[in-house]
Amino acid sequence: MSSLSPDDVDARIAAVALMAQERAIDAVLVTPGPDLRYLIGYDAVPLERLTCLVIRSDGQAHLVVPALESLAAAASPGSHLPRSAWGETDDPFLLTADIVGSCSRIAVNNQMWAEKSLRLAAVMPGVEQVLAGPLIDELRMRKSAVEVLALTRAGAAIDRVHQRVPEFLREGRTEREVGADIADAILAEGHVTVDFVIVASGPNAASPHHEVSDRVMMSGDAVVVDIGGSMPDGYRSDCTRTYHLGEPTEEFRQRYAVLQAAQAKAVEIVSPGITCEQVDAAARDILAAEGMGDLFIHRTGHGIGMETHEEPYIVAGNSRTLEPGMAFSVEPGFYAEGLHGARIEDIVVVTESGARALNTTTHDLVVIR
Ligand code: ZN
Ligand code: ZN
């Protein structure tokens, strides 16, 4: 399912062609993955047979597909593009090189398999290959109104799952059991895939990318629940809330209050003209001022769209300026090894004058008694 119209496809192709021209790139080649889905709405599975969209810098676009996938390609929003279907005994790389024509430099999508890239190099000797990511990311990181709506629906869907998490979290259950219930709920609430389920309890909460384990949860555990999935249109959700089984210690409560303030401050400063690193610093400075700087061991956030992690990254050293339509996570945390951890994560979209959070469930510590 794609919300792209043929006009959107043409506009995105024209934008890529223009950027290619500006960078002296003769053609941009895109194999299956999020870039292809973004550009022409074709959600092809990356397989050994070559599927490749060729966008020449003169604006001509052409899709090379295996004959047996031609019908699937014809059902996508990019079906009006010229298409060449190749048979099982044809050489699709020669065919692609022929469509590209004479050239000295091509860009390939970041997720093109090395095998495909090397075989293209073999049939195009002397042609330089560069990454297409820097071009395509310029488009993907600035969400259209339709894309913002799609991310809003994804955010609402994952919020409904978080509202159900207190039913699943019980003393005596394992992280894995709770994780399975959450995965079912992610699908039940409108996603088509479960992309990740983190249920990190007690000392496991000190590991930001812990997934699930057979640890039995008990009273006194903080539980970090970081979950996300993909909606039918390909847009993704990602949201973290921290729960607590039984009463938290005074130390945990105090640390959590600092985290809550840090997350709120970082969202508050988001606005066009602010840089990514300023957003990161806003959260980090509050944690550091309370002696928790060493406990915040990752960047503050990442862009989100057709991938869970994409540009722009909210990290020290990234001086990129925010613009309306950029969507990213704001997710500071604290991690005390062997003891506990917590994280609060919302997806926010930059508006004309500030930011709008796409996740709206409470940021307060949810204590389950
Ligand atoms: Zn997350
Ligand atoms: Zn995230």
Write the layout of secondary structure elements.
Elements: H1 6-22, E1 27-30, H2 34-40, E2 52-56, E3 61-66, H3 70-74, E4 83-86, H4 92-100, E5 105-108, H5 114-123, E6 128-131, H6 133-140, H7 145-168, H8 175-188, E7 193-201, E8 222-230, E9 239-245, H9 250-269, H10 276-289, E10 301-303, E11 310-314, E12 327-330, E13 333-336, E14 340-343, E15 346-350, E16 355-357, E17 366-368
Parallel strand pairs: 1-5, 3-4, 5-6, 9-17
Antiparallel strand pairs: 1-2, 2-3, 7-8, 8-9, 10-11, 12-15, 13-14, 15-16
Helix pairs in contact: 4-5, 7-8, 9-10
Describe what you observe in this structure.
With 369 residues, the protein is α/β, with parallel strands linked by helices. It has two domains: 134 residues, Creatine Amidinohydrolase, Chain A, domain 1 (3-Layer(aba) Sandwich), CATH 3.40.350; 224 residues, Creatinase/methionine aminopeptidase superfamily (Creatine Amidinohydrolase, Alpha-Beta Complex), CATH 3.90.230. Helices cover 35% and strands 22% of the residues. The strands form five sheets. It has a six-stranded mixed β-sheet with strand order 4-3-2-1-5-6. Helix 3 links the parallel strand 3 and strand 4. Helix 7 crosses helix 8. It is elongated and about 70 Å long. The model has no long low-confidence stretch (mean pLDDT 97). The structure holds zinc ion (ZN) (2 copies). The site of one zinc ion has 4 residues, from loops.
